[in-house]
Amino acid sequence: MVAEKKPRRSSARTVPSALIYEMWAGKPVYYKGYREVLAGKKTIQEVMSCSDLQGVLVSILHGTLYGLIDRKQYLLATNESGLHLATNEHLSNDIAIYEKVNVGKLRDKYFDIPPKVVIEVDIKADVAEFENGNDGYLMQKARKLLDFGVERVLWIVTNVQKTYVIDRNDPTWYVVDWSETIKVLDECTLNIGQLLADEQIEY
Known about the structure:
The chain has 203 residues and is an alpha+beta fold. It has helices at 34-38, 44-48, 52-68, 100-103, 133-148, 192-198; strands spanning 20-24, 27-30, 74-86, 89-99, 117-121, 152-157, 162-167, 174-177, 182-185, 188-190. The protein is built from six helices and ten strands; from the N terminus they run E-E-H-H-H-E-E-H-E-H-E-E-E-E-E-H.
């Protein structure tokens, strides 16, 4: 497993809290591009926003899953919903699927139970402090999710049109093309390439 290389403690004193994307064991992980905000080259809103393809893809996935999953059994959450792992440790999820029986009444706080499935689209975190950059961050976050109790992580990478398929019960983590059909949960599957083609999305 790749060792974590976390952000330096001193940076937390100078970076606005709005630029904190996640907290890992009490250490902030900032939004990608936060240094450009500090340099006055971008606004906070610019670095917090997603690209057109990312936004459309999350929307299509959410809409598709909403019609496929058993909504009496599962709860679908999106919009970078927060996941509280422990004291001073929380992550963000693009799409998360929870078992309703475990959720109970919503409390206007971060979720503090593991979703059954997490789907991520690209990486919104600054990975400069992580060994192996994007790969290091992706692998470490996926491991955190699995250790917390998540059963399956699907991580979509738009620039290479690939999806990481990571399953808690399968020691082999693998990568597939968008043209491949992948299992989400139960009998629910997704084919990202086909979904985009059906929506006539050019990218």
